[in-house]
Amino acid sequence: MTNLIAYIPALPLAGFLLLFFTGRRMSKSMIAFVGAGSVCIAALLTIVIGITFLQSGSSANTQTLWQWMRVGNFSCDISLRLDALSLVFVFIISFVGALIHIYSIAFMRQDEDYARFFASMNLFVFSMLVLVLADNLVLLYLGWEGVGLCSYLLIGFWYKVPANCAAANKAFFITRIGDTAMAIGLFMLFKTLGTLNIADIQQQAATIPNVTTIALLLLMGGMGKSAQVPLQTWLPDAMAGPSPVSALIHAATMVTAGVYLVARMNVLFLLSPAAMNVVAVVGAITLFVAGCSALVQTDIKRILAYSTISQVGYMFLALGCGAWSAAIFHFFTHAFFKALLFLAAGVVIESLHHEHNIFKMGGLKNKMPLLYYTFLAGASALAALPFISAGFYSKDAILWYSWSAGNGNVMLWAVALTGAFITALYSARLVIVVFWGDMKTPIAQQPGKLMTMPLVTLAILSIIAGFVQWPHNLLHVTLFADLVEKVLPATVLKQGIPPELLLQLIAAVVTLGGAYTGYLLYYKSPHIIEQWKTAEPNLNLREFFVKGWRFDELYQTLFVKPFLFITRSNKADVFDKIHQWLVTACSRLNGWLSLSQNGSLRWYIGSMLVGIIFILALQFFL
Amino acid sequence: MPSFQTQPVLIVAAILFALGLTGVLVRRNIIFMLISVEIMLNAAGLAFVAAGARWGQPDGQVMFLFILAMAASEISVALALVMQAYHQHKTLDVEELNALKDGTEPGFG
Question: Could you list the residue range(s) of the whole structural domain that residue A609 is in?
């Protein structure tokens, strides 16, 4: 079984290579067969391997394929390692990836670059699998950069629109900031330990003197990839890509790479309380900032993008509090419901002639009932409606641990609770504005079977995926925590905290209150919003949120403008002057010497004479 | 053996050398310049002979023979070159035979 692990990433890679080299000559059904087929087989293989792995009860399986490089005392293998944590990620990547590929067969059917789309998607799945299966940080970094590249390629998939290219560039540049920090972290780690093997690092972590710096640098990499404040600005713009791309890369998998990195390097973070606090605070700030922005967006995909940032913020919060398994659990459920929401949003946008504005939608409930119910399942999981949604089980755990876990406190809990209210509010807003009320745009087409099948599967998972892990006091089912705590440290609880049931009740009431507020504001009595909008400061606040807390303008002022100023003032190239001077001096000297070579024989004889006299004079006087 | 005064001979040699040098510097005809070079060589030879006589050694006369041989070979090469130069440029004026001067203008601009 061990030697089958390599086939999971190898299948999408083979699909990519086939499509990349021969995709132009293939028919569309052939492309779909290769592109989606490779990932589907990988998903089936993952399930088989996963079951065997769980039955065997071993903690980790390592498969070394070949040696990558050996320089001095540094050696690095292409080596895959499957343990409980990577199994969860591999499962989500291949399984959700397969569903999204199936959906894309129909969704992208009209596109002329069908092969390029599937080639990039397969390459992405391959890179992401390498990222989570890597047993050393160099290989992980290869996958890390690979997903960044695919993200760039797919955001700018419709490259004929300049705005899409700008969005792709932005995503690439901003994640690059994080990646650079991460690379520096890796260098420092290697300098201290002399190895980048994950298992070795975990063993020797206690001997690292500057563990906080390294942890923070790695965190910085994670913040770039996972769109956490202050590097979050690329994700809303990344929605320029096709909807399946948003679902796969910018919701379910790639943006959680940072979560994976922090969880994988948990030993480093546990050694540095300061870094843990930073993780928690970054998560808390992000979930609040992005939640507020999600409240006021009008583009359906941007709402979902901000909500993704916010949900990944929850995962970081949980990681920072020391609730490792809760963070991974939230990743697990979030992948299902957020992929579902994006795919459903893709269907809505397609059906309504590429309309993105939710206020021009409406009344889809009766026209597209299947879509409505699947979207409702996703939105209720996002809002974390108690008991009936997967989101409840994971988010409730995070809320509880944000206070009760070793590193949690009341402030973090309060922010998380506010975030939960906001999440419920914008989820309700989304469902009500898009699906209820009057119809504003006629429906162009109904989704086909290939599109509804993944939607229904994900909707069912969005409801039932949470049942594998119940809150302690309700039902003793802890399958998920048991699994991942083979790899991750168990959550330590503090003493002297309020009873769990009380906090759960508060969370449930707040969630329901948020949903009800949404119902009230957007359905029952919309005049409240209209009234609210009349006041000047409120409009300014709304504008502030719509623009994502004006982070883009801040960066424009802080970095872009000074940079442009420097380039503009240096238009004449100050530094060029230095070597220009050298050139001028040489050429002047050449001019002078050139005068002496004038072709006059007498002049030459004269100079010879002077030279002879000079040498004779030296003889006399020295 | 009559007493031999070295100094007057050296003075004559110096005068001859100066004459030759002046000829090389001021003459424009390349043939005359070669003749002037020969005069300078002979001045040097005279100085060698005088020095040999002063110390009663044969080396001075040996050196003069070397100079003669060298002058003969030099002048044969030089005259061949002069003939070639005259064939190609129809002049023996060194001021006009200046095709080897650096043609480029000073500086790269």
Answer: 576-621
